[in-house]
Structure formats: C-alpha cells, structure tokens
TrEMBL record:
Name of the molecule in the record: PKHG4 protein
Keyword tags: Coiled coil
Family matches, as InterPro entries: Rho_GEF_signaling-related (IPR052231)
Domain of life, source organism: Eukaryota
Entry coiled-coil feature ranges: 90-117
Keyword Coiled coil annotated: yes
Residue ranges of the TM segments: none
C-alpha cells in the first residue's frame, strides 16, 4: 500500500510538472498584462462618450482575460487530486499550487468586479444623460 501511494505521488509530481507550464503562462500574463490593464480601469473619465470607449476597450481585454482565467481554472481542476495527499514530498508542490490558485482567484474576482463596476457606471451615465 505504501509503495502504491508513493507511485501515485510520483505520478502527481510528473503531472504537476506538465501542468506547471500552463500555470506559469497564465501567471505571467496576469502579472505582466492583466493587472496593468485592470489598473487602467480604476480612474475612468467623466463623460459618457469616454466611458463608452473605456467600456469597449475593457470588453476586448475582458475576452482575453476570461480566456486566461478559464485556462488557469482548467489546469487547477486537473490538480484537484492533490488534496488527498499530505506527504512532505508533495508539500512544496501543494504550496505552489495554492499560490497559483490564490493569484488566479484574486485576478478573476477583480475582473468580475471591474466588469460590473463599468457596466453600472455606463448605465448610470446613460440615465443622467437621458434626464438632462
């Protein structure tokens, strides 16, 4: 039984190394592109026209960002089996996995929040534009 468990752990480590390339790609994109783009949507202009342009740019970015989020979530899903293993040899991989999971979750949540905020701002500005 111990030998079988060890073999399973080694298989998981090999699987992790294959999936890690995907994690690295997603993580790199989040840090080098995604976060910068999200920061640009924090301070939006005060006119409806400018806001609509910002919303259009954000939608284009959102398509790409959502694809990276999906890709990262699929890779994480492949690693769900790690939860069953608690050996010391696997611990360092679990720490890396949790780090990727936290980073992806934080970014995807920020993306959702910005999507909702921009949509609400556009609706609000359109409402005020109609009232005038």
């Amino acid at each position: 039984m111990l030998s079988n468990k060890r073999i399973q752990e080694l298989e998981l480590v090999m699987e992790f190394e294959k999936v890690e390339e995907c994690f690295k790609e997603v993580s790199s994109w989040i840090e080098n592109v995604g976060r910068k783009q999200l920061k640009e949507t924090i301070n939006l202009d005060d006119s409806l026209e400018m806001l609509l342009q910002a919303q259009k740019r954000f939608r284009e970015f959102d398509l790409v960002a959502s694809e990276y989020c999906r890709k990262g979530q699929e890779a994480l899903k492949k690693m769900d089996r790690w939860e069953d293993f608690s050996s010391v040899d696997v611990q360092s991989y679990r720490v890396k996995l949790q780090s990727y999971r936290d980073q992806l979750e934080e970014f995807c949540n920020q993306l959702d929040e910005n999507r909702h905020r921009i949509c609400e701002m556009v609706r609000l500005y359109e409402f005020f534009d109609k009232v005038r």
